[in-house]
Amino acid sequence: MSEKKSILRFAEYTLDRADRQVCRDGAPLDLGSRYFDALVLLVEARGGLVSKDRFMEEVWRGIPVTDEALTQCIRTLRRALGDDAANPRFIQTVPKHGYRFLSDVEFVGEPVSGGEENAEIPRAPGPGRLAAASTLGGAATGVVGGLFYGIAAASGGASTMVVLAALVALLGTLAGAGIGLGMASALAWRGRADGVLIPGAMLGGMAVGALGGTLGKDGVGLLTSQSIGAVAGLVEGLIMGGAIGAALWLAWRRRSGLAAAAILALAIGGSGGLLVDLVGGRLLGGSLRALQLGLGDTRLHLETLGAVFGESGFGPRTLMAATVTEGAILAATTVCAVMLAFRGRRGPR
Fold this sequence. Notes:
The protein is α+β, with helices and mostly antiparallel strands. The chain has helices spanning 33-44, 52-58, 67-81, 127-153, 157-190, 197-224, 234-253, 258-278, 284-295, 316-342; strands at residues 7-10, 13-16, 21-24, 27-28, 50-51, 91-94, 98-101, 106-107. The protein folds into two domains: 3-107, Arc Repressor Mutant, subunit A (Orthogonal Bundle), CATH 1.10.10; 127-342, no CATH class.
C-alpha cells in the first residue's frame, strides 16, 4: 500500500494503516490487532454496509467464532472512539445485516490524485441513486444519438429530427434503467461497490435488451404487418451491461477522477461495441438500419453515412464504426453520470 494513502482522518482521529495505529488528537489508542482490522474495514467501506460475513472473512479470516465475538469487537471500538450505539456518531448498527461507518473520511498527507490535499475517499453509492444516475446517463446517450442520426441521416426537417431524438432518448433511458437497476440490485445485495456490479449490470442489460428486442421486432410487425431484421436485443444488452459494469467498478476501485473515468469507460465501452459487432449484433445504428430496410419507405437515409468510410451504403465498416462509437458513448455517459451523482458525497451524519 502506498504510504501517501496509508493515513486516514475522521473527526479528531487519525488511522495509520501502515503503522497499524489509531490516535485521538495525536494520542495513540490501545486496540487489539483484530479490532484494528475491523475498524480499518469499516472506515474503508466509505459508508457502505459491512456485513457480518465480511467481518468473519476479512477480520477473523475464516476462524470459527460466534456472533458475540463481533458484538464485543464493535462494543470495544465504540468505547475507544467515545461512540454511543443509541445515538451513533461513527458506527451504526444495521439490524440483522452488519454495520456502517458514518463519519467523513479524508486522506492525510501528500496529494492522492488530481493535486488535491486531503482527498476524500468516495463513499459507496446508494442503490437508488445509482439506478437513477444510470438511467439519466442512458437518456443522455439516447438524446445525443437521436440528434446525430436525425441530423445526419433523416429527411423531413426539424419535426423528424425531434421525433427521432425523442424515440432514441426513450430507448437510451430504458437501457440505462435496466443496467442501473441490475447494478443497484447487486449493490443492495452485496452492500458495497465491488466486482458484483459487473454481473448485476449484465443481468440488467440482458433483461432490458430482451424486452427491447422483442418489442422492436414484434411491435413493428404488429403495427405494420412487415418484418424487420435483427435489432439490439439480449446479447447486446449482456455485452454492454458487462462493459458498463466493468468500467464503473474499475473507476470506483481506482478512485478515478471524472476525466480518467470517462477515458476508461470510452475504452471499455468501445471494446464492448466492437464485440457486439463481431458477434453480429446491433446497437442503435444497426437497429435503425434494420427498421429502414424492413419498412422501405421511411425518412431515414442511413446509407449516406457510408460515404464517410468509403462505402456506397450502410455497409459493414459503417456498421462497425457506429456500433463501436455508440458503445463507447453509452458507457462513458453512464459512468460519468454515476460518478457525478456521487462526486464529493460524504457519509451520512
